[in-house]
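The record is given unchanged here:
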Amino acid sequence: MHILLCDTMVVSYAPNKNKTVLVMSTMHEQPDVDLLSESKKPYAILDYNATKGAVDSFDQETKGYTCSRRTRRWPMRIFYYLVDAAAFNACVIWKLQNPTWRDHAHSVRLDKRRGFLLEVGHGRIRPLITHRSVTADIIMSSAISLSSTVSDWS
């Protein structure tokens, strides 16, 4: 079964009795089927299978170091995915801009993505830690001077 809408085609393919695969394509204009193979799959599905490697490798890369947590709220799932995608894309851009990053001899860590994520995380919290330590020093010095003032009154 197929549907043609303007520049979009939807193909329904049933590889098994109880399984149906729907594919929407803007690349294909007709639901042509590969009659030479024994599976008789539509070209839209064959093209998808031939080019889905990037999606699989992205999933594999982000699976190791993800911020995702179990949740029943779908907006949170989308948020976690977007954070993972942004971190992965930032790491790819960083490695392209800095190809010799972490290539020195004393670098034990081989996983550059993990190192990148740690440096980004530390870079984001370092200003807050510095601010808190300065604020804590001000509070401590104020408390010490206040206690010495109170002890002078006694």
The longest strand covers residues 8-16. Residues 90 and 116 are 9 Å apart (CA to CA).
